[in-house]
Design a protein that fits this description.
- The complex is a heterodimer of chains A (354) and B (391).
- Helices cover 32% and strands 21% of the residues of chain A.
- Chain A has eleven helices and twelve strands.
- The longest helix of chain A has 17 residues.
- The mean pLDDT of chain B is 97.
- Classes of the chains: A alpha/beta (354), B alpha/beta (391).
- Chains A and B meet through helix 3, helix 4, helix 5, strand 4 and helix 6 of A and helix 4, helix 5, strand 5, helix 6 and helix 7 of B.
């Protein structure tokens, strides 16, 4: 089995994450219940005419994937694997509204074509002329981890030597309104810093694109080594700690060897107690990190957490804005990520310093 | 295996329809669309209410039709595989869908804001929801469950991932397949692309007018050699080879030279360690669109040269069932192997002028050892699976 390394990272988020040379030096603080990703200069990456036809999700995905590839110095990867919870939401909404509003008449195919969940993966392949393996995973909050696990399988067995992996989700106005109706999104605006104190139902929603180039040969620039990923469709609260310990044991590690635990806390009073079980329990004495107050919650937001973990391991620094407690600021060897959404689709991801 | 499609509610019924040339294509009944006189579909007769009753779901359930179909097919697969304890080994679920909960979303799109009773479906819109429900129905807990959405190749990719997960030792058993229901969204989408036939679809025919959409679900139970040995299981067939490639030609259309499909078939042969001559039958993607059948036919010639094996598309029976198609046709491929039978390609009359390729138009009995199944989709996604009698 070959090792798996994260060769490059790229993030488009509600924070200033496009510039690789900074690391949350200047944090955008919001007072809202929906956070939009900060648009990069799309024209530097996509010809204007092409960009006009693309929704934000596709554009973010293309820019983030191009950044990840160029930073790794890879022109065409062996495979492209993406994860998205809700896919190309804007085009889906556009097509559904057109069907209803125009009573199934006078429709054009553009938004239908662009509404499929594999649009981003397909567009990247088309642009790079990448004829290799191309998969898109759509399993809610483990969409990105499914992609990661697939890439890990192929790299470990040497079926591929470098793979572009990414998570993309975009906001759609209609869906956002529906999520407010269904109380998935908080009814009140919350300030980023006070997210975990909100103690209300629902989350602050967001969007973003996070891409990574994974490879099975180590290079100087590598960010981290991906040790293992585990996915669980369900986990009872009573089972969480034991499953976590089992996962660490399978990787010959114990809880004390984890230098930081990155949790997917999203401020939803109904489900944050899963994270509390760990941060008040076996990881009470470990450096704890959270991030969804900066990125917002969305199905592939754990890819932003993955970006954060890589940044911490590479720079060996921990920005103040993501600290949940004060244990350590340096010396990060192993980082563990734990994520779930609404008590379902749980994942553990384990990274090691390179 | 388990399956529900326009030609049957289970594996036996599907097989009976295939051998008796009984198509499932008809005028649409369940969806109120302005296009009802312009299109034909492969629709399943059973209503949502009947499925809900059969599954014993509470009245406040929020199952989309996609989840209902998927549950029915997966339950049959688990039953036929004789699985008594889902927790006896590491059992995952890899599903596939492209429509997901869109059937409910398009129905309640504006009503959601006024009628609290339908708001439960807001949560079941996303594509991963049907896998969640299927897992609940078949009792997969605390395990790897995911969904693939690569348009019309989705379920073939789910089968491929399942096979790889077992090969890598990550899981002992994986329930793989796909599900998609009919929706106004896909009917109108394919309508705008002008690839819907107004009559029975005619795969590989010179005068083909396009595809008929269908709804269906199918699941297969893949198990490792160890489980098969330990539980003394009867093996229906082996997933011998798989290939996935991207055509990288156009967002929706396939390249005229069929490059993506060629690559996928070649890769599957390589993984299977098989020569092209070892393939006894190809269950083609064969959607009956001008573009697909030309591209796929060219790909056959690229891979098999002068010696293209017997091939047929079963989409004249079921319609194109989108993300489920790869699983539907995997079940048919296994049935072909089990019965040494090449299924007929219905409605074929005139060979295409671009090449000298004729599908098998009547059921043909012959010894089958290896069957190939193709699934090609939007986004350039091309997948091939090879099923074999021998490991």
């Amino acid at each position: 089995m070959k090792p798996v390394y994260i060769h490059s990272i790229a993030s488009i988020s509600a924070q200033h994450t496009v510039d690789e040379s900074v690391f949350l030096d200047q944090v955008e603080s919001y007072e809202d219940n929906v956070l939009q990703a900060i648009d990069p200069e799309y024209k530097n990456f996509i010809p204007r005419t092409a960009a006009r036809r693309m929704s934000k999700g596709v554009k973010m995905g293309i820019v983030a994937s191009k950044l990840a590839l160029s930073r790794a110095g890879v022109e065409v990867p062996d495979a492209i694997i993406t994860g998205t919870g809700l896919g190309c939401l804007k085009d889906s909404e556009k097509f559904v509204s057109a069907i209803i509003d125009n009573k199934e008449q006078f429709l054009t195919p553009t938004s239908f074509i662009q509404s499929t969940h594999n649009t981003v993966g397909g567009q990247i392949a088309l642009e790079l002329q990448c004829k290799g393996y191309n998969f898109t995973y759509v399993q809610a909050s483990v969409s990105f981890e499914s992609a990661l696990l697939d890439a890990e399988l192929q790299l470990k067995t040497d079926e591929a030597s470098n793979i572009l992996v990414g998570g993309i989700d975009e906001l759609g106005d209609h869906t956002t309104e529906l999520f407010k109706v269904a109380k998935l999104i908080k009814s009140e605006k919350v300030s980023s810093e006070a997210l975990l104190e909100s103690k209300t139902k629902g989350v602050v929603y967001g969007e973003g694109a996070n891409f990574f180039l994974l490879c099975n040969e180590k290079s100087e620039n590598c960010y981290s080594e991906l040790i293992d990923t585990a996915i669980f469709n369900t986990l009872e609260k009573e089972e969480l700690t034991s499953e976590l310990q089992e996962f660490l044991k399978n990787n010959q590690l114990s809880v004390d060897e984890i230098d930081a635990i990155i949790c997917g806390y999203n401020g939803d009073v109904q489900f944050d107690d899963y994270y509390e079980l760990l941060t008040d329990g076996v990881f009470a004495q470990t450096q704890q990190v959270y991030y969804k107050h900066l990125s917002g919650e969305y199905h592939s937001s754990s890819a932003f957490g993955f970006w954060l973990a890589n940044k911490i391991l590479k720079t060996q620094t921990l920005p103040k804005a993501v600290k949940l407690n004060q244990v350590k600021d340096s010396g990060f060897e192993f980082i563990l990520l734990y994520n779930q959404y609404m008590g379902e689709n749980h994942s553990f991801t384990l990274l090691r310093k390179c | 295996m388990g399956i529900i499609s326009a030609i049957g509610n289970n594996v036996v019924e599907n097989y009976e329809s295939l051998i008796h040339e009984k198509t499932g294509i008809s005028r649409i009944q369940k969806i109120d669309t302005v296009h009802h006189n312009d299109i034909m579909v492969g629709e399943i007769a059973t209503t949502n209410e009947e499925f809900i009753q059969r599954l014993g779901l509470p009245s406040d359930n929020n199952y989309s039709r996609t989840a209902l179909l998927g549950s029915i097919a997966a339950l049959e697969a688990v039953k036929n595989a004789g699985i008594e304890d889902m927790g006896s080994c590491r059992t995952g679920l890899v599903s596939a869908t492209s429509v997901g909960g869109m059937d409910m979303t398009e129905k309640f799109y504006y009503e959601y804001f006024e009628n609290p009773a339908c708001q439960k479906y807001i949560l079941s819109h996303h594509l991963g929801d049907s896998a969640k429900k299927i897992a609940e129905q078949i009792g997969v807990k605390k395990q790897f469950v995911t969904t693939i959405s690569t348009a019309c190749s989705s379920a073939a990719n789910a089968i491929m991932l399942g096979a790889r997960l077992i090969k890598a030792g990550k899981l002992d058993r994986v329930i793989v397949g796909g599900t998609d229901c009919l929706s106004k969204f896909t009917i109108n989408g394919f309508k705008t692309l002008m690839i819907l036939s107004d009559t029975y679809n005619t795969p590989f025919d010179e005068n083909r007018k396009g595809l008929n959409l269908g709804e269906a679900a199918a699941f297969l139970v893949l198990e490792s050699d160890e489980i098969v040995k330990a539980e003394n299981k009867k093996v229906l067939a082996y997933v011998k080879g798989y290939g996935n490639a991207n055509d990288a030609f156009h967002q929706t259309a396939s390249s005229e030279n069929g490059e993506g499909a060629t690559l996928a078939m070649q890769q599957a042969l390589k993984i299977a360690g098989s020569e092209p001559s070892s393939i006894d039958y190809i269950n083609a993607h064969g959607t009956a669109t001008g573009n697909n059948d030309l591209s796929e036919g060219k790909a056959f010639l690229n891979v098999f040269g002068e010696k293209v094996p017997n091939f047929s598309s079963t989409k004249a029976f079921t319609g194109h069932t989108l993300a489920a198609a790869g699983a539907i046709e995997a079940v048919y491929s296994v049935l072909a192997l089990q019965n040494n039978l090449v299924f007929p390609n219905l409605n074929f009359k005139t060979p295409m002028k671009e090449f000298d390729l004729k599908p098998q138009t009547e059921a043909k009995h012959k010894e089958l050892k290896q069957v190939m199944s193709n699934s090609l989709g939007f986004g350039g996604n091309c997948s091939t699976l090879i099923f074999s009698k021998e490991a």
